[in-house]
Amino acid sequence: MPTTIAGSDEGTLGPTDGAGAIRGSRRTRVLATIGVNHALHDGYTDLIYVLLPVWQAEFGLGYVALALVRSLYVGALASLQMPATALAHVLGARTVLVLGTLLSAGGYALAGASGGLVGLCVALALSGAGSSTQHPLASAVIARTYGTRARGPLGTYNFAGDLGKAALPALAGLLLTHADWRFVLWLAAGLGAVVAAGVATLLPREPILREEARARPQVAEPGDPTVGRTGFGLLVAVGILDNAARPAFLVYLPFLLQEKGAALTTVGVAFGLAAVGGALGKAIFGRLGDRFGVTRCVILSEAGTAAAILLVIASPLTLALAVLPVLGVMLNGTSSVLYGTVPELAPHGRVEHAFAVFYTWTLGGSALATPLLYGPLGDAVGPRWAAVAAAATAFAVVPIMLVLSPHVATKP
């Protein structure tokens, strides 16, 4: 079967074409460009965690308010996934990705220029809106570019995102000891403008509607069980709990570490350690899912997440820091397995639509759960018990995954 080249204006290339080297080079360029963009946006998302103690001190915020501030970013990111996908049908994936990156960077620039809490909240919502363009479009481009071999590249794409989570929060933690937080956000905004220029230059043009119309009849047969809605719905439920557990713990991590005697620089390093482990987890679990199956890998990562969270809570500072990379591996390992399964369970083979729905629900659940559930819990019982609730949320994935298992039993 000929393979459609995502972002190509040249039609299709057969597996024996002399253009195979060009095809490989184009795939590598697509994956590298989208990976850097993912690193920026995920770094933007986790940068907020390092700034929460700073904003708490400056604006006198409680845990509910802090969770709400973060959720303004994530909520905008989640709620605009579907509109971003629809816009890409008109303008093309590359244009929407560039505009989204510029908007996200502009939001951080505005946050740095804001004089008060209201301006900060508006700016974070704008930045989250820009980041909404990234996940569904980039994932769908990779899925189309690599076809049936997309699980590994999707794991690489997720690995790149966690490199951004490792780099930006750690760098911000270091800079915050020498500079005002507003200046740090301006630097982050400048980096976003550079990445947007790179995406505009390096990512090939991709006419989404035309390519998806060609590919759709070939993705799944009408009788294929992967087109059923039950399996995909269960996958979304797993993703919601997985995405809720992560911020539910990370929102309280700075305060748990400060209780153990950590300085702000140490908090930034801690997020870097967790993110490095997370990047490794995404790379490892994306391939473990191919070898050992989705069910085993998800159960391992979620049970490991719950155990590692409890260990961090109970440990002194040095041991807690040592556990954070392992926690990162488990905390983010699930996502690579889930993302790689979305194309396989996409109803009616509509991969791009499935990614948009998946990200909308999973990120939206995270955005709502943090301020409505875990924020009040933190105010009521403190950071320790709120983090214990995050561990329980991760472990709640296990029974749902057992129900989902028959739908992915024949799939890696």
Description:
This protein has 412 residues and is mainly alpha-helical. The protein has a single domain, classed as MFS general substrate transporter like domains (Growth Hormone, Chain: A, Up-down Bundle). The chain is built from 17 helices and two strands. Strands 1-2 form a two-stranded antiparallel ribbon. A hairpin with a 7-residue loop joins strand 1 and strand 2.
CATH classification class: Mainly Alpha
- What is the CATH homology-level superfamily? MFS general substrate transporter like domains
What is the helix/strand order? EEHHHHHHHHHHHHHHHHH
Stretches with pLDDT under 50, minimum 5 residues: 1-22, 207-227
| CATH architecture grouping | Up-down Bundle
What's this model, at a glance?
With 412 residues, the chain is mainly α. It has helices spanning 20-59, 63-79, 81-91, 93-113, 117-131, 134-146, 151-175, 181-202, 208-219, 229-250, 253-259, 264-292, 294-314, 317-345, 351-381, 383-395, 397-408, and strands at residues 3-4, 12-13.
